[in-house]
Amino acid sequence: MPRPQQTVLQCGRFELSLDRPFVMGIVNLTPDSFSDGDRFADPKAAIAVARRMVDEGADILDLGGESTRPGAAAVDADEELRRLLPVIDGLADCGVPLSVDTRKVQVMRGVLAAGADMINDIGGFTAPGAIDTVAHSDCGLCLMHMQGEPGTMQQAPSYGDVVSEVEDFLRDRVDALRAAGVAPGRMVVDPGIGFGKTRWHNLQLLEALDELCGLGQPILVGVSRKSLIGELTGRAVDRRLAGSLAAALAAVARGARIVRVHDVAETRDALRVWQAIDEAGGP
Ligand code: HH2
What we know:
Elements: E1 8-11, E2 14-17, E3 22-28, H1 43-55, E4 60-64, H2 77-90, E5 98-101, H3 105-113, E6 118-121, H4 130-135, E7 140-144, H5 162-179, E8 187-190, H6 199-207, E9 219-222, H7 227-233, H8 241-253, E10 256-261, H9 264-279
Parallel strand pairs: 3-4, 3-10, 4-5, 5-6, 6-7, 7-8, 9-10
Antiparallel strand pairs: 1-2
Helix pairs in contact: 1-2, 2-3, 8-9
Bound molecules: 6-hydroxymethylpterin-diphosphate (HH2).
6-hydroxymethylpterin-diphosphate (HH2) binds next to strand 3, strand 7 and strand 9.
């Protein structure tokens, strides 16, 4: 029996009512991210860009101190925290939850102590100590699926049935966190578009996204400017807005509650129009 779907997300200082599609704005504090490297490497510039995203309608900000691009340089926990902490501090009063994209337990601990509201772990809290670190806080959690490791994950991704394998992984992770005492109202799940997946795997996952609704947790999807969009449109990273908007709308139409994007204003507009049409059908 599918669990009833959570519509309220406990996220540190915030309780989000996911009664419309939410927009998570990406703030990469890295010199080597695939689409916007170096744009935000200076904390002051990052804070200004993040505040503009809030003005444009971001519901959550996702701060990342390490790139997950294949081949990106590894960053140690101290350097990751050095990038993140001034930005968390500078955005403390920005009015929306601050999520941190990290897999490192030491970074999770440091950013939670500094006031982060959510941990977005592309490893799904599989690192030793990760669950213990978040279990006794009240932060929101994003559990993502990835096959392999960022450096090599795109070399030969392989699945029997990608949708059921991703679903099984996410169910196991939700159950592991619940067993450690994490309330279901703190968790969102993410199929991890582009993380150890071919174009065909990504398309299958997006098309069948509603099957993940059976997990009972809100679904987050990140496809903004990714290689999938480049492969389908033939566009370079800086020309992928239209393709990214189409993918975000397709994901929301299939049940995604949060979309993780670089282009907040444009995504907000696209979702407003989509939502007005959707609601015109009545309850
Ligand atoms: N994608 C990226 C990073 N973190 N987290 C979640 N939950 N879902 C995603 O799809 C996801 C993610 C990769 O994109 P980006 O942050 O733009 O690039 P980089 O890893 O180069 O910093």
